[in-house]
Design brief:
There is one protein chain. The chain is an alpha/beta fold and about 325 residues long. It has 14 helices and 9 strands. The chain has a single domain, classed as 3-Layer(aba) Sandwich (D-Maltodextrin-Binding Protein, domain 2), CATH 3.40.190.170. Strands 1, 2, 3, 4, 5, 6, 7, 8 and 9 form a 9-stranded mixed β-sheet that branches. Helix 2 packs antiparallel against helix 11.
Amino acid sequence: MTIRRTILLAGLALLAGTQMARAEVSAVFGGADPLEGVYDRQNRHFVELVNERGKDEIELQFIRGEQLGNDVQVIEQVMTGAVQFYGDDLSFFANWVPELNIASWGFLFRDNAHVQAFIDSPIFTDAVEKLRTEEGIRVLAAAPGQVRVLVATRPIANLDDLAGLKMRVPEIRTYLTLWETLGTAPARVAWGETFLGLSTGVVEGAEGGISSLYGAKFHEAARHVVRTDHVRIIAQISVNEAWFQSQTPEIQELLTKAAQDAVRWQTETVTAEQAQTLEKMAAEGATVTEIDVAPLRERSEVAVQKLEEEGFWPKGLWAQVQALN
């Protein structure tokens, strides 16, 4: 942890102590999503719901952006209890629970109803129970989130156009493998450095949720926005399990209900905003295109057996998810 983050966390601890005069319980929500991105707003909505409903009982402090680090770093702080809450893409938890790698595999889900069927299935509940018991993080609520699309500095009309594309990918193994499978040359560049990377040619492409890409202005550096819709994100809000168990049943219920309401709000917001955001990108000079993703889906399926043999997720899990209705 950097000196800056250590000082910030120490300051938050001091602030939490002063809040005790107004609220019986204080805690910190660590963000990592770009400011005004959909998960930044989801998390802020959750904090506002808790503070409004909790009144004098509980008060949350929301640290936005990457002030506490990237997603993996914030998750590690939640594990240690230095930070109590975190919310973003569920896929980041796959760094600790391999079963969740499946959720970020390309072209896995047909639509949001299929995503919800997965969340309601024993596959999901068993995976998040493992996260709780082995890593000390409880997922309070989860729901369908954004679709992820591609932005590139050159036109992408088909699978062949992806060959050799220098592609920024996040620190999730399945994302790296997916884009290697599709023929690109993945590069690990920090999210906050990607705009510069696209502008200077360090990378030629990036992918992400529509609102996240727009919030980071990637479409200004990479003018070709391609509706691959390759991943349907699962949004989540989670909490340090030991801290959660130390709270009263009333506060636990308040937090769980607020998290459920916040992720549901996120789903409704994403659904309403995606088309509008793509229109904004086009109005600001980007070219938004839809391509035939069937060849991309077929290529991704070719890699499934290899991934299962390498232990990315348990054998047969991809077929189990495909069979969900």
